[in-house]
Design goal:
The structure is a single chain. The chain is built from 22 helices and 14 strands. The chain is α/β, with parallel strands linked by helices. Strand 3 (about 165-170), helix 10 (about 175-180) and strand 4 (about 190-195) form a beta-alpha-beta unit. Helix 2 (about 20-25) packs antiparallel against helix 3 (about 30-40) and helix 15 packs parallel to helix 17 (about 345-360). It is globular. The protein starts with 5 loop residues before the first helix and ends with a helix. The relative contact order is 0.04.
Amino acid sequence: MSGLNEDILLSIFEELQEDSKSLFSCLMVNRLWCETVVPILWRNPWCYSNINYANKTYLFFIIACYISVDIKEFITDRGIKLPSSSNKSLLFDYFSFCRSINVNTINNIISIGSTLAYNQFFMQQEFYFLFMRKCPELKYFDMKSIKHQIFYFPEAMIRLESLCELTCETSTDASYFYGLTLYCQYVQKLIIFNTDPKSYYGIVRLIEVQKNLKHFEWVDDFNDGHFTSDDHYEKVLLTLEKKAESLNYLKVFFEYMLNRDYEILQDVLSKFSKLKVLIIDALLYFEDEQVDKLQMQVYSELELLSMNNNRIDIIYSIIENSGSRLKEVLFRPYDAIDCDYEGFDENSLIFIRKIYENCPLIEYLSITFPSLEEHFAEFEKLLKICQNLKSLLLLIFSDIETNEEYLKNGEILLKILTRSASSNLKEIRICNGIKFSLENLEEFFEKWKGKHALSILTVDPIYLEEDYTKLINKYKSDGIIKDFKYVNHAELDNSYTL
């Protein structure tokens, strides 16, 4: 491996660009590996979730090395502690590789030098000044918690014009967004955290000026349900509607919708015919007339559909006309039952049929149905037809909530999986309504031999018992089971439904 040429190494490291642990280990192999991996690590060095940046003194050292001598003297006079070796030359011009700013991460690193707010503010300002001068182009900017109007720095206009991805929050003063609109007009990915539901004029203006917006996310992230915004979500949605020609990824989490918002969202959704990804987490109380409109809506390029807090008939209405390219259909099963309880039996049956009739490419699927013979039969038909299926999140609803009923459901499910699941199936996530006896589970494991090692996640702690653990470990050792994990409901749902 150490003898690979630079081009091959570069290709390998590009595949590992989000794996900081592997990249850091590559630094130590030899000089060529180090010189090849450093530019990749420093393209977006603030993005690694497994790093605690607040104690990374080496990053603070690198920042300090860029500061001029006269500024260092001023800083130390104010009581800011700089590393004693910060006057040495760096092995690499790290900032020249960097294409990103993450405000919270930068703040954490700079806090190493001083606990005083004013000193930290001054150091942050010095960092942005240096960064704008050294960075050839800015691609990723997470500006949550920002206090510096960096568009006034020299070279800011050139750096901000190249921005592709912007993450921000509504608590930022509107004047800041107006400042950004002068330069940031070609953002392709815009992520907004609604941390302070006040006037959205600045955010709306920022959306409005974008000329090639492809990816949009909105996440409500506040505790108080009281809106101070006069227009609620209206202006945001209506402005976003104007980007329908370019937008192919839409993710929204609206926690406090009003009747007017439902109508507007319905109208806006009908305009996004080019979406490849549609993720909605909101209670959508559509009237029958609006559901009828959804049944006519076509997303011919849709590949991922995730709709939480929604009725099953709304989900399958979209699938019916937009399913030919769908690879992922995801939702929280409990929410679907709660929203559609009266028509659950019929609608869950229709949902299964819509999947196998319209989604030949489906790979990831959330599914829920009652423990009725007809539903099990249709589910087995789905497994036979949808041969690309890799992962299932499954809830079987039982009117009779007894251990015997759950064991019966488990026995039926395992027999269906044995007969009809394709060799592509790698993961099953099981909610309530299903239990596996030791005998049935062992029989299933034996018959699963020769297929992909299977991962099973469950919310039932019974599988932590000694007899089950012993059985599971045996088939893990044989390579039949990759993992058999007990998790809580939040872990089971959230990691699967985006």
